[in-house]
Amino acid sequence: MASKKELVEAQTFGRRRLLTAFVSGSPGGREIEPQKPMRAVVAGVALSVLLVLGSLGYGLLKPGLPTGWDNNKLVLTKGSGARFVSIKGTLYPVLNTTSARLVIPSESFEVVEVAESKISDVPRGKQIGITGAPDELPSPAHLVGSGWLACVGDDGASRIQITQAPAGEATTDSAVVTVADQTYVVNGSYRYLVPKKDVTAVLRALQLESAPVRAVTGPWLNVFTPGDDLAPLFLPTAGDPLVTSTLPSGTVVGSVVEQTGSGTEARRYVVTAAGELAPLTEIGYQLYQLGSGAQLGAPIQVSSADIRDVRTAPELAPPTWPQAPAAAFDGLDPMCAVLQVPPGSAPGAQPVAHFALAATTTTDALPTTGRAEVEVDAGKGALVRATGDQLTDQGTVAIIDQSGTVFAVPDPSTEVLAQLGYTAADISPVPQSWLAFLPAGPELTVAAASMAPAGTSGS
């Protein structure tokens, strides 16, 4: 049995061993580092941040409906492509984009794409829109207001081209054409009717007796401005004696006097009942010789001195007649009319049709169906106001889309034009005769776009 002394020594040894363990570290010299209490806090904060960022990322990848989508917006559904106009929280199926534009105020129009599942519970209204209205309108930068070309082939087939590329070149040639057993001469911007009984004589006087005669369509011929008929020219009082005159003896009313002089071209005049001299153009003289001049003999030769005191009267021939005979169209190329502003015209001048010859590409492209066809450059179109007799400022405004169809805009107010994507400055004047050559579509109005399509019950 241990003595008391041994017990005391054992207790002392135990205390020393325990103390040594506390102050000497772990065996092998490794120190056991105490745990840091903030490590768990930092890890928790980091995890929270990751959760928040993940939620935001999911929201961006799976967005909800944008603000204001439910009123005055064009809503397109992803996947199905269904199209709606949103009005005060209700979705109205709409036939085409143009109808949607007319329903929505210009300052609010916006296209919104949404997932179909997002709007499955949104109230639906009746279908609205204009049947046959275009889905795509030409942008202002793609409007073509001039340079149009209307060509006609040998068989009467014709084509309208609305293009910015030069497809035809104006010519000074004259062409002889027929429509419904009537003969016309086309020259410059005019078409001239030749009376049946005078066709042979008039064409000979115009040096067109050998020109090929081409049958054309009425719409093509009507794009040219009507000129005065090309017919024998008469002076009602021709042959009557002059009351008083300083002209040579034998001169009567209707006599042709011809002024000649050294180094100057001969000029011809008709003596009027007032004893004045009415100038005669070359064509005027030729057709006067078929009329009153045929009975009054050859022109009377005068000098500048002989007529220096004789007053000049207005020209006898109509002002629309050509000045002189032109070369005959050879008939080898399609005959065309090009819409252009006459060279040298004042700013704002109206474009007119001018007789032209087609480019090679146009020659090859003419239809063979005997009917009119329309070709518009890809993405192009026109915004026009019809002009013509009494229509310079009040003519109908219309949009021509890529199909060549004319869509009238009865109310071309600033707001309606803005709804369609235009301003008044985008409108180009075009003669009504050119628009009549094109097929017509439905009128584009706000009222029609807001109602059920024609022929439906609206349910």
Automatic annotation (TrEMBL):
Transmembrane segments: 40-61
This protein's UniProt keywords: Membrane, Transmembrane, Transmembrane helix
Pfam families reported in the protein's UniProt record: T7SS_ESX1_EccB
Top-level taxonomic group: Bacteria
GO cellular component, one term: extracellular region
Gene3D superfamilies: Type VII secretion system EccB, repeat 1 domain (3.30.2390.20)
Protein name: Type VII secretion protein EccB
Source organism (scientific name): Sanguibacter gelidistatuariae
